[in-house]
Specification:
Distance between the termini: 77 Å
Number of helices: 22
Order of helices and strands: HHHHHHHHHHHHHHHHHHEEHHHH
Strand order of the largest sheet: 1-2
Number of strands: 2
Structural class: mainly alpha
Radius of gyration: 29 Å
Strand content: under 5%
Oligomer: single chain
Helix content: 40-55%
Shape: globular
Amino acid sequence: TKVLDTWVALDACQEQAKSKLSIVEGVEAAAQRRRIRWRGRWGRGVTSDSHGPDSSNLVLAAEENSGRQNVIRERVQYSCQTAISDPSSRHNIGEPTGRIPVNAEEASEMDTDVPLVELGEEMENGGVGTNGSADWWIGTRARSPVIGLGHLHNGKDWMAIDFDVSRQETSFHIPLHRMLALLIHKCMDMGSADFDKESDGGERTGRSHKWALGQAFFTQIFPIDYWPTSFSSILMEHPLRLQVFCAQVRAGMWRRNGFSVLSLCDYYHSVRWCDDSLDLDLFLLQCCGVMLPPEEFMERIQSRFGLADYFSLFLLRPNEYEPALAQEMLALVIRIVSERGLCGFSAVKALRRELIRRLAIRDSTHSELIRSLPPRLSDDKHLQEILDDVAIYCNPSGMQQGKYSIRKECWKELDLYHPRWIPMELQSAEDRYMRACEASAMIQQLPQWQRPYAPLLSINVIATSARVLDILRSVFFHAAFSENISESRAPEGVLFTALHLLALGLDICSLILDKQDKT
């Protein structure tokens, strides 16, 4: 309430300074300016009378003003104490249990936005309520409910978490998640040979064998208390929120925040930080995709992108951001299924892919190529050998430095779903591909299934799940039946990305059928 006292005093001082009144007259004028009745969310703009000010009511206004200040202080103290100390407010997310007694009639007597507060709602977005609008005057931040091991033993297989990336806080700094991802990667890398022996014929024996391999590995990594589905549903949250946030930035949803937000996404995708951020986040999402049922996994991704109702069969016009978000979501699914940077590629193969990606953007000098490599690959002993295999060196002439240019036969290895693509560089690579191959990269360079480490073999079920098939059916429906495809829910970018996801699913099915025929 100290903040409230300061605010009322400043209001009175402003009235005194403007009209050169005494302190008492300033308090009365401030009360009259607020027109007797305190405004709230439901009472904003509502006054006690529709006529001019009456000087005979100034004393009454000051008395009522003082009385209502005391009422507000009591309610603020009660709200903060209840939200912080009431143990019933700490329970599973998404299960409200009670309500602080602030109704519309009471709120209309207050001069601030006081929302109805559900004790079970998330407090981490700052302050009482769902939008944190009362933070600045309450002066006390309610504690966030902590998700602990007890939530994993509540008998639920799936933890429902209500979160909106565009309205709630998202952090790029998640070191514990990345440390866990790094440890899983090291364990998977060290035991890859043993798992490969066990998985021989795994493509032939079907989906159950692959799932059993992944379950066996993660059961050894995690204690039995952390194996339930609810733990994985919590583990995937923060890495997924980062992918959604970057997608929103690319869609233009944060352009009013200036260049600071764009710089954060650029740093996140930069080559110097990818080893410790983007690559580990994507790898952790792949692990969660193996531990979780594919339908629930895809449902969570749709929900975080805010597209739970977008892929329907209603011919409605989307808003300006939804098509871009839909394209980014489909691209993320393709990356989760097909990316092998930390779960399948050898150092030589990863280095070759990085060099082709850089040379596809533009011809580069030797020093520029070294700077474009991730730290884990920049000192590889096979660098010069691979560079000579994928590029042609053009001797310097005049003031021009000698540069490497990509060989024509290496264009077919271009990966359009490399995790670090930014729109400008991807567009440059596609334009150069068109000039070199006289064909569109979007048509020729389809994503392909490549064998990951054995514990992640069952990641392929995501691309062939019922949820993904429903999404693809919706995209093709809108592309076929919308009068103007540019204004439909399946513009050209969304349609091509959906076709690439379909091609990836068909590639997975064809490989499985071929190996079954050979046996």
